[in-house]
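Repro case for the chain-ordering regression, as requested:
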Amino acid sequence: MSAEKQLYTVSIYTENNIGLLNRISAIFQRRHINIESLNTSPSEIEGVSRFTIVVNMTEVNIKKIIGQIDKQVEVIKAFYHTDDETIYQQSCMFKFRSNLLFEERNIQNIIKESNSRIVTVNKDFFVIEKSGKKEEIDQLYKELSVFGIMQFTRSGRIAVTKDEMKITALLETFNN
Amino acid sequence: METETIINKEIAKKVTERISGSEAIVRCLIAEDVKIIYGYPGGAIMPVYDELYKYKDQIHHVLTRHEQGATHSAQGFARISGKVGVAIATSGPGATNLITGIADAQIDSTPMVCITGQVPSHLLGSDAFQETDIVGISTPVTKWNCQVTKASQIPAAIAKAFYIAKSGRPGPVLVDITKDAQFEEFDFVYEKCTKVRSYFPVPKTDISSVEAAAKIINAAKKPLIIWGQGIILSEAEEQLKAVVEKAGIPAAWTILGASALPTSHPLNVGMLGMHGNYAPNKLTNECDVLIAIGMRFDDRVTGNLSTYAKQAKVIHFEIDAAEVDKNVKTDVAVLGDAKVSLELLLPLLNENSHPEWHQQFKDLYAIEYEKVIKGDLYPTKEGLTMGEVIKEINIQTKGEAAIVTDVGQHQMIACRYAEFNKTKSNITSGGLGTMGFGLPAAIGAKMAAPDREVVSISGDGGYQMTIQELGTIFQQKTAVKIVVLNNEFLGMVRQWQQLFFDKRYASTEMVNPNFVAIAEGYYIKARKVTKREELAEAVAEMMASKEAYFLEVLVEKEGNVFPMVPSGAGVSDIRLE
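-- result from build under test --
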């Protein structure tokens, strides 16, 4: 098992309960682990939520953390995966003054080449959205930063795994 | 006729009554067969207390003198009985005062349900009087918790709380109930919880893992069993004894596992860890197979992990999958309930006796006896030792008493030297090391087992952390025997200061009050012993008392607990002096 730190995507299937986010984040907090990104959403199963958490740590420790998450009463199952084992994306938004769109022709090129899209334009500002890997978003940020970004935000990672996680089968065993 | 009965049953099940949320809380407790609860009233829980007044013939509420005392009493109740302990408190400070006991129950796997009142739901988050986010605060130290804001949610929440607290690896749960939910009326019906989707409390024992374990054990030349509280929690004492005897394996215990196998059993080789016995610590690093059962390789047991049992194959019988490989890498993990797993293991084991291996334990015991035990139990120098007090209690209780300890030197000495004939007899704060645990825990233990002799042993430091519970003892007429081993120091910290901080006794010297007068102030019979000649007679007087009795024993000021595995050292570096 690797003793090197690397990024792991943690996927946690849970009941949809108030306070569960606190309970899960406390498990990272007490080991003094910084959460790189966090996303909560519904999952493919009705009534089951899914947390997607990215952390940078060793495999030895992520295994222990997964065990401690997994045993929480309202956690159905927790998994960890490397980047190679997942398809993952993040999303981001940039807000700029509208006049840039006409004054800085290069912006149009950057939008096109980076596979970004304009979400909205009005007389004061326009908004660009881009989904992709963190590195692509970082690159886009670098390119756009010269124009004076009014606002920027990046979402947490969302990921699906290449392997099946068999939550439906697991829920059936719980029910029996 | 038969059809009619079925229909009647169906109706009975579905018949509801329109009652308040607060009455429902009490009725839920009755339905869970709760007869004693520990708590303290206050604004946000008053509707429940009003119902407790009404139902006082069915539930006995014990008014402790502090909410922390309520949790420790509930813990003592749970530890001696195996049942769920219940503590109840109001919002705000009432709720936060429960936290130490909850954290203690969490780390020591004690089943406990805490019910807290909360400000009315429309005031949540408004910094209302006595409002605190107790669900947020208790989250990291509870097995499960929830907040209820509607009366109709109360039965399901409490049913779930009891089920989760007791099942699998037990632990504390907290249910926070807003005051408006307590007042609200609804159609009450109670159904016990037997299942929670997403919660799988006991992994099914995989027979192939048991077979793999048996194969390794049968091939072992120097096997060592180390057991923990898992044996007691799964009531696997008989199974442990059978395994130990059939395979002839020396067995040592963690302090929470103490009493699962009688102290006098020839294969019981003593206590593990920092102040445990010499032989099991030393030989942990010599055994060829280490068989851990229902224990979690706490750092106080293992010392430095990088030198811990590296030569051994490690087999871990464990109910909580998160404990496997957490601290010590295992070769074979047997997940499941200890009782079930050991029952499966027993027929697969070969009969064995390992006489030479046993001799190694005996030889090391002889060294420990000469260097440590003799001086602790049969001192010749002036000044009473803690050990001789424990020895006297052993003699006079014939090892039948439940010993409830606090935290510190007296705890280590009591665990080392107390003789236990019965299981569930050692009640102490292990994982959290909570000073102040002992006295209130003894109250709960005595109430849960009124026919048993319950002896609370504390030091002068920890005793004063929850000394107010003498009031509870007086009011409830709880016949606990209270022993304070007074060395006028915070002894364990002082010992560390002596050994590792060049005797700089920073804030460890205690200027103590007149403990006898304090006990007598609560109308508790009390006596102080300062001389060896008085000890046996004083203990006899205490044990003969039908009521609570307080005995202070002035012991040597700077006695140390040995053996000792210094912090950060390996178990084989255990020191005898």
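Ordering looks correct now. Residues 115 and 130 of chain A are 7 Å apart (CA to CA).
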